[in-house]
Design brief:
The chain has 377 residues and is an alpha/beta fold. It contains 12 helices and 15 strands. It starts with 11 loop residues before the first strand and ends with a helix.
């Protein structure tokens, strides 16, 4: 059995649980139903709670979502976290109904652009304080703070993420808000390992939420995540985890089961250490979906893409399949071919060049044409 010395992180209370310090590593997930569909969302929250979720996150993008969240709160005992997008002011409406608020530093530039991000974070922290909520500063590779991104070479995607997280921690500390954790997510497990190790070396006392974003479908998505978690949790880094898998809602409990089994295996010494992720083969990344999905055909499309592209297995090509128009365009930027789903069409792009939007029944042959062109070159 490995003797894992956890980093001495500070405790952060989230509803009935506490992460950090010597508390066990918590496992969490996120709903993918429409937040306004209260019955379906409550059913999914309960399914996740029954599967062992310590916290369940729900996206809120509008006042209607916020009103639905108040009703969801009444119908479940789960610890709830809200995922805020651009509209940071919604924090005030939802905070009384949740235990944690997640904001993304890269999304604080879209609303009220004349205001500095510090003012917006001060607002969110004030609301969190008044409602006994924790905060997660959730930095994501697909939506990094543009001011940080501009400072570095395009090849270096890690330093801007790290700097953004450190800057937000310093600011929260300066206003005496310490009930927070941080996440630094990327779809590449190697980058997740590096950025979290660098962050933990600088701020070992801040609890970390670990995850490989858009890990894809099982079993590959679980394997990618396991590789990253082994290299971090095995070295004492990480206080809560999420395994992001592209799955239909009724199978979302598998994310929780995967999270628990990865953590248990690491503590029992059942690891595949020194495994480095092989990036010299076809890499399909796909998001776990959330309430922002506008066409449920997304999950099936992700499965069809995986099947259709098997013939290109030996090529070092990355294809990203994203569920929505909110984060899809940004989060496909680093892929060779990217797809993101709208209500009626699927958008296709090659690198950063947009190739157009195609019907759900037209997209696979279009994708194949582009894939063949890349293979030919
Ligand atoms: S890409 Fe869109 S649908 Fe997928 S998890 Fe992110 S926000 Fe949700």
């Amino acid at each position: 059995m490995p003797d894992i010395q956890r980093n001495p992180t500070r405790p952060v209370k989230i509803g009935t649980i506490t992460i950090g310090a010597d508390n066990r590593i918590a496992v969490q997930s996120m709903t993918a139903t429409k937040t306004t569909d209260v019955d379906a969302t409550v059913a999914l929250v309960n399914l996740m709670q029954d599967a062992g979720a310590d916290v369940v996150r729900i996206a809120v993008d509008s006042k209607k979502d916020a009103a639905a969240l108040a009703e969801i709160r009444r119908q479940t005992t789960a610890n709830l976290s809200v995922d805020l997008q651009e509209n940071y002011r919604l924090a005030q409406v939802v905070a009384p109904h949740v235990d944690k608020i997640r904001y993304n530093p890269g999304h604080l530039y879209h609303h009220e652009i004349e205001k500095h991000w510090q003012e917006k974070v001060r607002f969110i922290a004030g609301v969190a304080n008044d409602n006994a909520c924790a905060i997660r500063v959730g930095v994501n590779c697909g939506s990094v703070d543009p001011a940080k991104k501009d400072k570095y070479d395009n090849e270096d995607s890690i330093t801007p993420m790290l700097e953004s997280a450190l800057e937000h921690c310093e600011f929260l500390d300066s206003i005496n808000f310490t009930r927070y954790c941080v996440s630094l997510k990327d779809s590449d497990p190697a980058k997740v390992i590096e950025v979290n190790k660098r962050f933990a070396a600088k701020r070992p006392e801040i609890p970390l939420h670990l995850g490989v974003t858009e890990a894809g479908m099982p079993p590959e998505g679980i394997i990618k995540t396991r590789i990253a978690f082994e290299q971090l949790i095995g070295f004492g880094i990480g206080d809560t985890v999420r395994v992001s898998l592209t799955l239909p809602n009724k199978r979302k409990g598998e994310e929780i089961a995967a999270g628990h089994s990865i953590v248990e295996d690491i503590y029992a010494g059942r690891v595949r250490s020194v495994v480095t992720f092989d990036t010299n083969t076809l890499n399909i990344i796909s998001c776990p979906s959330c309430s922002r999905v506008e066409n449920e055909a997304f999950v099936e499309l992700a499965e069809q893409v995986k099947e259709m592209t098997q013939y290109a297995k030996q090529h070092a090509i990355t294809i990203a399949v994203m569920g929505c128009r909110v984060n899809g365009p940004g989060e496909t930027d680093d892929a060779d071919l990217g797809l993101w789903c709208g209500p009626k069409v699927v958008n296709l792009k090659k690198g950063t060049e947009e190739l157009g939007a195609f019907g759900y029944d037209e997209i696979l042959p279009k994708l194949k044409d582009e894939l063949d062109k890349i293979i030919a070159t």
